[in-house]
Amino acid sequence: MKNFFSNFRGDLFGGITAGIVALPLALAFGVSSGLGPSAGLYGAIFISFFAALFGGTNTQISGPTAPMTAVSMVVIAGLVAVNDGSIEKALPAILIIFLLAGLMQIGLGLLGIGKYIRYIPYPVVSGFMTAIGVIILVTQILPSVGYYPKEDNEFVSQFKPMAEEIILENILKEEAGEGILVLENFEETIKRSKTITQDDMDKEARTLAKSEASGVLGTLKVLPRAMQNINWLELILALSTIAIIYGFKKITTAIPSALVALIVVSGVAYGFGLNYRPIEEIPSGFPVPNLEIFTGFKLSSITPYVFTALTLALLGAIDSLLTSVVADNMTKTKHQPNKELVGQGIGNSIAAIFGGIPGAGATIRTVVNINAGGKTKLSGMVAGILLLIILLALGPVASQIPAAVLAGILVTVGIGVMDYKGLKAIPSLPKDISVGPIKLSSEVIIMLVVLVLSSVWNLVYAVGVGLVIASLMFMKKMGDLTAERSDVKTLEHEKGWADEAHFPKHLKEKVFIKHIKGPLFFGSTSEFQALANQIPRTASTVIIRMDRMQYMDQSGLYTLEDVLIDLLNSNIEVLLVDVLDQPRYMMERVDLIPDLIPKDRIFNTFDECISYLNKKTVEQKAEASA
């Protein structure tokens, strides 16, 4: 903190520039999430300020990002659906999940998990990021053409019978909960059903219509209706926004093109009094904490979403730490990963309390900050303060921004967030697995599985499936590699290692050597067992060389035990050479050493093992001659 104001001028310009870049994205991500533009702005304010203050990357600018917003959409849509389509009812549960994600991030940082985030496979990240782009791109088609399913009366009317059933079902559930439901007498049920108005059914039907048209598949289902009901003004506003964003970049990158598009298109639409659809009103005044997340807390309402909260926490961690690496490369500094996770967690937790959506380190905003002169934590805090000033001073003005403009901005975000590097690499990646006569790349399969499942099913589960598949394929490759490199042959038929060149010739047909060249774990145990079974029972001795076996898990340990018992029962002596620390520790813990393998049968070098065999041969000859 002693150098907090050491670069005041540069940090001021960097923070202001990054805040200006963040403004249109914060509004757009807020609208996309389903909580409205104010939620995006609140998230940007608090995450930017507190993640910078407590984080471990001096130049990082944080706020709502495309991946975090996409997962947040899943949470919000699910909880709104189970709360009769009411955001007000669902809001406490939504925010407590965001708060839980922030607290989890703090926990990850305190436990030192930051350094392990880099082990998530690239194909999983690539498929996920491309899916985020697809989701944002597809779901912004409807607002770009000015079509809102819940306002299409003909479409909504299809859901009225279902709406009536749901309302009656809710009445029965209420009565059951109150203990007044009598199956032989539905008098109370009939009385309550008469209080249902047409407005109640319309509201429920509109909620069902909106839910039916949500997500990628929902958008594609209603796309034909949207194309028949295009609002040409909204479409022109969205296309103009997209054109300015891409066109202005060719003129200059000194001024954020998204901000230029926001100001120009919104100014023209408002100035000419066009009949466009504005975004939701942004509340004026300083943000106030939503204490209902504590007073109205119900564990049952968030239990199904705990895994989603963890996903948000991990995703935010990955997003932030990747941006930290970019910042390190640009500034020639070194970030503190665990401290960064704590800072991100504090930022997300405070943002949730004030009604903001979660976020993470944002690469573009961080790069802009550095290029504008930002060098210390002050730059990120300035960005947050600037957004707060804009909220307080220009909130009513920002409420006049056309919804189609933000949809256009999100379309460009969706296009930009896709992992084109990973997509371009698909034809060139090695085809390392076979499905019948077809050869495929395991990396491509993982990426496509995550991409498809994320786009059409569930972002959270898709990442889990991708990680499981990637882990299984990795273990299969490691097992195959260990089996391929490890072999069991007599020295007459195998090219031995350098120190085996002078092995006594008279022992070569009786002594077999097993080279273990890699970890012995559950992915390679079956191959190890098969190789061990190749040892003929005419052998007198088996030497197991463990010089290159750095690791052995419990499955490998028990497989090794089975092999040793089988060999010893066949009166075959087993000698171990150069047992490394971790495998030896495992073997000693379950008494393989010394119960099955006495310590005098374990040698540090192969030469010591040869000396033992020569001495044993001499003793056997002496006994035979006697």
UniProtKB/TrEMBL annotation:
<feature type="transmembrane region" description="Helical">
    <location>
        <begin position="120"/>
        <end position="142"/>
    </location>
</feature>
<feature type="transmembrane region" description="Helical">
    <location>
        <begin position="93"/>
        <end position="113"/>
    </location>
</feature>
<dbReference type="InterPro" id="IPR036513">
    <property type="entry name" value="STAS_dom_sf"/>
</dbReference>
<feature type="transmembrane region" description="Helical">
    <location>
        <begin position="12"/>
        <end position="33"/>
    </location>
</feature>
<protein>
    <submittedName>
        <fullName>Sulfate permease, SulP family</fullName>
    </submittedName>
</protein>
<dbReference type="GO" id="GO:0055085">
    <property type="term" value="P:transmembrane transport"/>
</dbReference>
<feature type="transmembrane region" description="Helical">
    <location>
        <begin position="255"/>
        <end position="273"/>
    </location>
</feature>
<feature type="transmembrane region" description="Helical">
    <location>
        <begin position="39"/>
        <end position="56"/>
    </location>
</feature>
<dbReference type="InterPro" id="IPR001902">
    <property type="entry name" value="SLC26A/SulP_fam"/>
</dbReference>
<dbReference type="Pfam" id="PF00916">
    <property type="entry name" value="Sulfate_transp"/>
</dbReference>
<feature type="transmembrane region" description="Helical">
    <location>
        <begin position="305"/>
        <end position="327"/>
    </location>
</feature>
<keyword id="KW-1133">Transmembrane helix</keyword>
<dbReference type="InterPro" id="IPR011547">
    <property type="entry name" value="SLC26A/SulP_dom"/>
</dbReference>
<feature type="transmembrane region" description="Helical">
    <location>
        <begin position="459"/>
        <end position="475"/>
    </location>
</feature>
<feature type="domain" description="STAS">
    <location>
        <begin position="501"/>
        <end position="613"/>
    </location>
</feature>
<feature type="transmembrane region" description="Helical">
    <location>
        <begin position="68"/>
        <end position="87"/>
    </location>
</feature>
<keyword id="KW-0472">Membrane</keyword>
<dbReference type="Pfam" id="PF01740">
    <property type="entry name" value="STAS"/>
</dbReference>
<dbReference type="GO" id="GO:0016020">
    <property type="term" value="C:membrane"/>
</dbReference>
<dbReference type="InterPro" id="IPR002645">
    <property type="entry name" value="STAS_dom"/>
</dbReference>
<keyword id="KW-0812">Transmembrane</keyword>
<feature type="transmembrane region" description="Helical">
    <location>
        <begin position="401"/>
        <end position="420"/>
    </location>
</feature>
<feature type="transmembrane region" description="Helical">
    <location>
        <begin position="230"/>
        <end position="248"/>
    </location>
</feature>
